[in-house]
Structure formats: C-alpha cells, structure tokens
C-alpha cells in the first residue's frame, strides 16, 4: 500500500507540474474605464471596477494575476501621477491610485492606459502573459477651496441727475475654483445700508430713484460677492457714483429760421451749433443736412431761365431741335398733350401710358439725320396729377415704356433708335442700319428711373460709343446684342414721343406707351455735347456747400450729392465734428434769387462703445428764408409816343422801323438814408440779361392781308434768339425770346418794321412794347407807340390832322389838353431831349398856330363889325362860312410851305383849357 501510495503521489505531482506549465491564455480586462478622484485625495474610483480575469484559472500561477502596469495616455502623461496595485491575485481585483494628491485647478482631466499580467508558469513568473491595453479617464472633482475676488477694488461712475438708469456701472468678481459649481459667482450684494442703488446677480448697479446733485453729489458704498458654494469674497469692493448736474444731450445753438439776403454769396447755416453728448463716449458721428428745393423746380431753383435759355447760357452748341415745343401754329403736334403748371417757362407734358403720343412732323425729323446726336430731357416717372395708365393685359404686362422712338436717314440708309424704361432700367435700342446691321441694346440699371422724382438725362450717341449722364453723373452701360424687341422699322423718316408705332392696324396703333412727365426734350445732331456743358445744364445755382475742406480734422469726411441738396458729415471726434458742422454753408449764385421758404432738416446718428446706452437724437427741422431781392428796373426809352411818316414809306418793301432809337436800361433800386434821415432811393445801372420782349398791336388786330411786322431774321438767328408769332381771334403778339444781353435785344428790336400793302394806309395804328426777364418775374415799363400816316396835303381837311402828325416832336411842359378834338401827348412819359431841328420845327409850328388863331379872331371881328353895320342883327346859329379862305404861311422861308384850305369853325370864345394847351 505504501508503495502504491508513493507511486500515486509521484503520479499526481507529475500531472500537476505538467498542468502548471500549460499557461495558455492572456489575462482579460475592460477596454475603457472612467475614474473619479477627489481633489487632495489619491484613490481613484473606477467604473467599472478594475478586475482582471484569466481562463487558465484555477491553475496555480497561470490563472492568477500578479500585477498591473500603467502606460502613458494620449496626452503623454499618467505614469508619474498614477499607479495600479493588485488587491487579490486569485480574483484579479485591482486598485488605481495617484502617487500624490491631485489639484483640480492645475489639471482637471487625466488619461492613461493599463495592462494586467498573470503569474506565469511558476513562482519565478516565467512565460507570464499580459492583457490588452485599456484606457482609463480620470476626472478630478473640485473642492470649494477658493473665495471670490473682485477684479477692481474700486469702481467709479458719473451720471447726470434726474434720470433712472438701467445700468450705471458693473462690478465683477472671479473665483479660482475649477468647477462651475464653485467657480461661478451666484450673487452680489450691497452691504452698505440705505443707499438708492440696487445690484443684480450679474453685478449691474442701477439707481432706484432719481439722483439729485444738490442733495448729494457723491455716493460711496460697498459691495460683496458669493460663489455657488456660499463662499464670500475675500475683500469687498468700493463703488463711487458722482452725480452730475442735469445735462441734456443733443444739438445746442440750433436756429430754426435762417434768413438769406440775395446777392450775399454763401452764408453759414449753423454758425453756433455744437453737439452735447453729456460725456458719453462716442466713436462715430454722422449728420445729414437736407435742403428741400424740389418744390421750386426740377430739382433746384430753375425759375430764372427756361431750359432753352439755360442751354444758351451754358455755352451749348446751337442747333438743337425741340421735340416738345409749346403749342403754336408752327408747332401743333403737342397741342393735344395735357400740360401741367411749371415754375419755369418750360412746359411739362403729361403722358398717361395710353393715348398721349406726340408725332413729330417729317420736316422736323429730316433735320435729325446721322448717327451722332445728343438727346436731352427732363423725366419723372408716374407722379401726381397724372391719369393712371390703363389696366395691363396679359400680353403687355411686361412691356417697356418708350420715351422716344425714331427712324432717321443716315447717308443712303436708315438708322433707328428708341429710348425706353422698364422697371428701374433704362435702355437705348440702336439699329445702325435697319437693312443690314444688327441692333444693339445699351442697358442701365438706375434707381433714378423709378423713384418718381425729376431727373435730367443726357444721352450722347457717337456710335458705337454711348455716354449717359443722369443729373450730371456719368453711368456706364452693359452692352446686350438683341435681334429686335420692337417691330422692324420701315425705311422712312418718322419719330414718336411717348410711344412707338405698332403694326398700324385698327386695333393697335402704338406700343410701349410712356406713363409719366416729360419736359425739355431736345435732340441736337452732330458732335456730342461736352461734359462741361452737361454739368452746367444740371448744376443748381443754389444748394449746400462746405466752407473750407482744408480745415477738416483727421477722420472727418464730407459728401455732397450732385444736386447739392444733401450734405453728409462723418467723423469720430466731437470737437472736430462741431467745427465741421459750423462750416456747412448755403450758396446761391443767382443775382435775383427766387424768394421763398426752403425746408431744412438735420438728422444725426451716433455710435457708442456701449451700444445699450448710446444717445438717440431726434431730427431737427427748420427752414431757410430767401428774402425778396432788389428788383431790377427795366426801362424802355427812346421811342416817342407818335411816329409820323408819309404813307408811301410804309408801303415800301422794307416798311418803316418802329423803334429805331430804342434804349433799354436796367438798374437796381435800393434804399439810402441821407443826412436828413429821409428815406430815398438810388438806382445803379447793371449789366443784365433779358429773356423776352413783346410787340403787340392795340385796338384792332393786324390784318395779315394788308399789314405785317417784319424783322431781320438773320440778326435773330445770329444772336441765338427765336421769334414767336402768336395769332388768334383777338390777339396778335410778336415775341422775341431767349436769354441774351440788353444790347442784343436792342439790335433786334430796332430792326422791327411795320409794312402796309399798297393803298392800305390808315390814319393811325398803335403798338405796345414791353420786355421781361427771368421768365416774366421782372417786366419793363410799357411803351405805347402811335403810328400816324401822312397822306397828301390835298387830302387834308382839318388843321388838327397836321398837328397830330407832328406831335412826335412836341414835348410841352404843362399838362396836356385837347385842341380840335386831338389829344396831346403826356409830357412826363417817354420824353426825350429835342434836337436843334426839333426846336426849329417846334418854333415854326407854334408860329403857325399863332397865325391861325390870329386869323380866326380877325375874321370873327370883321364878321361882327359887318353884323353891327347891318343894324346889329343877331344870328342864333352863331356859324360863319369861309370855305373859300386860303392862308399861306412860310415860317422858315424854305421848302416848308403849308397850305390850309377849307377852314371851317364855330363862332365861340376860346376857353382857358384850349389856350393852356397851345405852345408858348
């Protein structure tokens, strides 16, 4: 038995040794662990717990866990701070711990890897196996070990009195703890009692009642802070609030009414204006000044001259053709278009987008040949007092509105163009050769086309170059090739304003009708208009300006729009901005500015560092008053009240000049205060420009078959003027118009002649002459001229006719009376200084009158003596007949014999009134 037992023991020992050397499996652990360790502690609590398993268990050594190894994590740290130990070799339980206490504020998160090792095949650990690497994340839990600390120990602020503020100042405290639980400040508290302030959890301090600087100028109090762990701040903070006397932010020194005296040049609008921000820190200021002059005319003060006159004054090349002239017998294609009142003499025509179309006659179109031309016009889309367009149909809802549609001859071919608007787009459709060349469309996208305001367009075409000026500013087009957006034009001359021709069927005659206002539509063929002329045409004579750009401070910007109605200032410094505002000026270069009110606005925008409490300024409104200028006195003289010429002279081919010695003088009358303090007027002659004169017959209208007014048209054309001959049932006015100097008008009016047909001489014809300037704002005195026709002496039957024919040379010093039924001229109106010949003639005529009167008295005396000799018989009729009496008088003893035959008169005593009318 013993031998058998020993044999079994040896056998079991051999089996155990063999089994112990069979370490077939690696230890196994989880792939990832999450750990937590408290700050200032070293034991890590893992989830899941650390256990290493080995499938070789329960074999001794091979199935047991001998240790764990820690490796560096992704961040390259972990081996120094942490270690892993085996708590039970048979179960594989382990523990992870830090080698020293951890600090959350230093590092809050740790990551590393860990492996498990078995005990191998024997006590020496031979052939031990290791598990895979598992990642361990360890978070250090914070401990509320720090107290809040204020960023500043003292906080100061200044506020104006009498107001409640949402925030006066903000205090801030920080906590050094790493976790949100202990690092956040949960609330602040004012520890000083009985102060009119409150603080919220974010540290914003506000006043709970309006502050009064007179009651308490400075408020001082203390505040503290608490974190979410209820730790109080280590040291409290002091807050000092200074109450400033009341300050009203905004513009100071604003004057609502500004007066401008015409002729004073430029004046500052805001000489004493400055911005008060009440110590608010501002980093950007923008002010917009608006001067509203659109109510005066088309964008600015254009009452002075018409569009045609402005072109003349701006030096534009002559030869423009007015496509929308005032209706007249010579230009009747605009008579059917409705017009609107305009402040200048240029008519404003209304187009309703339907049937308002002007067809320019062929003779006018034939003068517009060539592919070089300049088209200019004033345009306003839509607008008031315009009849609404007809409801769009489905087919024409997107149709363009045509302003000008024209086909003209170009050498041996025909070219076509049309100017249209569509939405906010302006397009020029140009066809160089309707028979061969491909059309080209020039397109501009402009806000000015659709803003319902007046705008000046100037289109200079020098194909293939096209230049567009809108309100004097150049715009570049985008070229678009087009196969034809309109029906192919026929090769013949024609031009429409306000639409384009359709297929000329009974139902469709025009297409693309325009809806809006047009004025001053002109075309000038030939070379294009210079840019300087275009700028002058649009330039306003009044507007906003800036005094001296060199005085602008750094960071200041100024911008003025083309119409000089809006000026924008921008800057970042209050002092520089105030100096710049005080240099904004109003400029008016017109000698006789249009009086009236111009509304004025000032809009301010501020940007502050603290946007929540930034100031907001309301818009300021005022007005500029342009006072009445010194009225120019236009005086016409040198024309006698009577003009007597033999009738054959009026019947000659050139007629008789009506105003050969006309003189026009313009003077300014202004008040003077002499030494005696009596108000007087003084007149200064000034160089001037007239824009029109009228010659109008008084009484019966002229009979075109028997009488007419003539003028030298070569002189008129050479001086750039035009003649308007207006006739109607009761009116005949001969008008010379155009902006020119006085001397030019004198030359033209001196060439006006009156001519009669053979045998059409009358006894008298009266004319009235007057001139004006600035579209009729200022007019001259009216000269009335009576034309007398001297017939053959054999046909004279009354001495008063001879006297009337000579009245142009009489200028008596007493008031006029009546002699034989003829009215003598007014000696105080249009009188001239008589020459030597005039004096001699006056003496002769006076002697003649005296002789006639003496002869009459002598005859009456003889007649009375004859009646006394016959016994004093009385003649109740008191008449006498001396038809055979002949008196011949030769006062000058030259060729001026005067014979009066057939003198008849009533027997009456000469009255004192008649005697006073006789020349001395």
From TrEMBL:
Annotated signal peptide: 1-22
UniProt keyword Zinc-finger, yes or no: no
GO molecular function: calcium ion binding
Domain Cadherin span(s) in chain numbering: 29-150, 151-270
Keywords: Calcium, Cell adhesion, Cell membrane, Endoplasmic reticulum, Glycoprotein, Golgi apparatus, Membrane, Postsynaptic cell membrane, Repeat, Signal, Synapse, Transmembrane, Transmembrane helix
Segments traversing the membrane: 832-857
Cellular component per GO, a single term: endoplasmic reticulum membrane
Membrane topology: Single-pass type I membrane protein
GO terms, biological process: homophilic cell adhesion via plasma membrane adhesion molecules; positive regulation of synapse assembly; positive regulation of synaptic transmission
Subcellular location: Endoplasmic reticulum membrane; Golgi apparatus membrane; Postsynaptic cell membrane
Pfam families referenced in this protein's UniProt entry, alphabetically: Cadherin, CLSTN_C, Laminin_G_2
Primary localisation category: endoplasmic reticulum
Protein family (similarity comment): Belongs to the calsyntenin family.
Name of this chain's protein: Calsyntenin-3
Gene: clstn3
């Amino acid at each position: 038995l013993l031998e058998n037992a020993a044999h079994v023991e040896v056998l079991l020992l051999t089996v155990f040794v063999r089994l112990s050397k069979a370490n077939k499996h690696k230890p196994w652990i989880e792939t990832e662990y999450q750990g937590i360790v408290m700050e200032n502690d070293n034991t890590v609590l893992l989830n899941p717990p650390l256990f290493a398993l080995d499938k070789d268990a329960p074999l001794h050594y091979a199935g047991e866990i001998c240790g764990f190894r820690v490796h560096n994590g992704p961040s390259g740290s972990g081996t120094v701070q942490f270690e892993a130990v085996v708590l039970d070799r048979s179960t594989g339980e382990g523990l992870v711990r830090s080698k020293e206490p951890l600090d959350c504020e230093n590092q809050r998160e740790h990551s590393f890897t860990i492996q498990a090792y078995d005990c191998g095949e024997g006590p020496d650990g031979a052939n031990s196996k290791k598990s895979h690497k598992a990642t361990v994340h360890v978070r250090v839990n914070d401990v509320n070990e720090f107290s809040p600390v204020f960023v500043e120990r003292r906080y100061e602020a200044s506020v104006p009195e009498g107001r409640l503020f949402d925030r006066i100042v903000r205090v801030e405290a920080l906590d050094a703890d790493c976790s949100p639980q202990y690092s956040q400040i949960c609330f602040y508290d004012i520890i000083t009692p009985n102060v009119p302030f409150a603080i919220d959890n974010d540290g914003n301090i506000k006043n709970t009642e309006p502050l009064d600087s007179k009651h308490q100028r400075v408020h001082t109090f203390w505040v503290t802070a608490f974190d979410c762990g209820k730790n109080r701040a280590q040291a409290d903070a002091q807050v000092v609030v200074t109450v400033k006397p009341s300050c009203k932010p905004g513009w100071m020194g604003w004057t609502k009414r500004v007066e401008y005296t015409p002729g004073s040049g430029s004046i500052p609008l805001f000489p004493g204006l400055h911005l008060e921000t009440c110590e608010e820190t501002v980093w950007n200021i923008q002010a917009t000044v608006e001067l509203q002059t659109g109510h005066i005319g088309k964008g600015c003060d254009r009452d002075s001259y018409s569009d045609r006159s402005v072109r003349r004054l701006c030096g534009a090349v002559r030869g423009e053709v007015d496509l929308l002239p005032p209706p007249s017998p010579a230009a009747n294609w605009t008579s059917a278009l409705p017009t609107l009142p305009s402040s200048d003499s240029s008519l404003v025509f209304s187009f309703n987008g339907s049937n308002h179309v002007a067809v320019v006659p062929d003779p006018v179109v034939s003068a517009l040949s060539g592919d070089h031309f300049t088209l200019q016009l004033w345009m306003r889309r839509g607008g008031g007092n315009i009849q609404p367009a007809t409801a769009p149909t489905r087919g024409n809802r997107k149709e363009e509105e045509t302003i000008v549609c024209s086909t003209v001859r170009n050498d041996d071919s025909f070219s076509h163009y049309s100017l249209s608007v569509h939405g906010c787009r302006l397009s020029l459709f140009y066809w160089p050769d309707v028979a061969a060349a491909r059309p080209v469309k020039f397109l501009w996208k402009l806000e000015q086309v659709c803003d319902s305001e007046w705008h000046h367009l100037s289109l200079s075409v020098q194909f293939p170059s096209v230049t567009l000026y809108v309100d004097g500013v150049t715009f570049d087009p985008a070229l678009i090739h087009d196969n034809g957006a309109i029906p192919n034009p026929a090769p013949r001359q024609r031009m429409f304003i306000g639409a384009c021709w359709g297929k000329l069927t009974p139902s469709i005659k025009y297409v693309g009708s325009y809806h809006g206002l047009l004025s001053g539509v002109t075309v000038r063929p030939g070379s294009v208009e210079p840019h300087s002329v275009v700028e002058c045409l649009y330039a306003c004579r009044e507007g906003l300006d800036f005094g001296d750009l060199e005085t602008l401070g750094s960071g200041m910007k100024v911008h003025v729009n083309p119409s000089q109605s809006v000026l924008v200032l921008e800057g970042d410094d209050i002092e520089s901005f105030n100096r710049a505002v005080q240099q904004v000026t109003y400029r008016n270069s017109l000698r006789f500015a249009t009086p009236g009110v111009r509304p004025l606005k000032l809009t301010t925008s501020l940007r502050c560092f603290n946007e929540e409490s930034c100031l907001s300024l309301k818009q300021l409104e005022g007005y500029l008053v342009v006072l009445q200028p010194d009225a120019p006195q236009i005086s016409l003289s040198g024309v006698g009240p009577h003009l007597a010429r033999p009738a054959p002279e009026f019947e000659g081919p050139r007629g008789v000049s009506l105003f050969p010695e006309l003189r026009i003088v313009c003077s300014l009358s202004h008040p003077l205060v002499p030494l005696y303090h009596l108000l007087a007027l003084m007149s200064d002659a000034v160089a001037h420009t007239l824009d029109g004169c009228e010659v109008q017959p008084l009484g019966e209208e002229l009979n075109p078959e028997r009488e007419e007014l003539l003028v030298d048209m070569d002189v008129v054309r050479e001086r750039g003027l035009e003649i308007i001959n207006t006739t109607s049932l009761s009116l005949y006015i001969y008008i010379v118009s155009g902006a020119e100097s006085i001397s030019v008008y004198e030359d033209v009016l001196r060439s006006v002649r009156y001519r009669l047909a053979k045998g059409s001489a009358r006894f008298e014809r009266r004319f009235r002459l007057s001139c004006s300037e600035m579209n009729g704002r200022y007019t001259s005195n009216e000269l009335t001229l009576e034309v007398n026709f001297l017939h053959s002496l054999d046909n004279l039957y009354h001495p008063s006719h001879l006297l009337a024919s000579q009245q142009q040379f009489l200028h008596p010093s007493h008031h006029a009376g009546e002699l034989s039924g003829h009215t003598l001229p007014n000696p105080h109106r249009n009188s001239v200084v008589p020459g030597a010949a005039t004096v001699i003639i006056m003496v002769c005529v006076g002697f003649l009158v005296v002789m006639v009167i003496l002869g009459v008295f002598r005859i009456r005396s003889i007649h009375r003596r004859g009646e006394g000799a016959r016994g004093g018989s009385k003649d109740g009729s008191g008449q006498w007949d001396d038809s055979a009496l002949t008196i011949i008088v030769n006062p000058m003893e030259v060729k001026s014999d005067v014979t009066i035959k057939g003198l008849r008169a009533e027997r009456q005593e000469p009255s004192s009134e008649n005697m006073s009318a006789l020349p001395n």
